[in-house]
């Protein structure tokens, strides 16, 4: 489990994560169990880094779509580093690099260029 998944899991359960300096706080305290506290400890620095990123202030610089496709971060790692395969699908460059697509395409007889 990565830091982005920990954040998404806890917030979907109604737990609010707050960064105060170099401290990570969570609310309500009674809603979190020991396993979740351990996850927070394990991924604390990455979570603080992700939650401390400044929000974009200029909405014009952040497009909502790419060629008509909704622009959404990777559900695994949370990045917007994307590439488009020959089928026209947008893929995560980190989690699903083009080399994996090429191997899959070659195995199933799909064009790779």
Question: Please, could you describe this protein's structure?
Answer:
- There is one protein chain.
- The mean pLDDT is 80.
- The protein has a two-stranded antiparallel sheet.
- The longest helix is centred in the first third of the chain and has 10 residues, at 3-12.
- The protein contains four helices and six strands.
- Helix 1 packs across helix 3.
- It has two domains: 3-52, Arc Repressor Mutant, subunit A (Orthogonal Bundle); 63-107, no CATH class.
- It has helices spanning 3-12, 34-42, 44-52, 98-107; strands at residues 16-20, 23-27, 65-66, 69-70, 82-84, 90-92.
Helix content: 25-40%
Mean pLDDT metric: 80
Class from secondary-structure proportions: alpha+beta
Q: What portion of the residues fall into strands of 2 or more residues? A: 15-25%
Helix and strand string, N-terminal first?
HEEHHEEEEH
Under the CATH scheme, the architecture of the largest domain is Orthogonal Bundle
Reading off the top of the CATH hierarchy, the class of the largest domain is best stated as Mainly Alpha
Output the radius of gyration: 18 Å
Number of domains: 2
- Give the overall form: elongated
Oligomerization status of the protein chains = single chain
CATH topology of the largest domain: Arc Repressor Mutant, subunit A
Structure, briefly:
The protein is of the alpha+beta class. It has two domains: 3-52, Arc Repressor Mutant, subunit A (Orthogonal Bundle); 63-107, no CATH class.
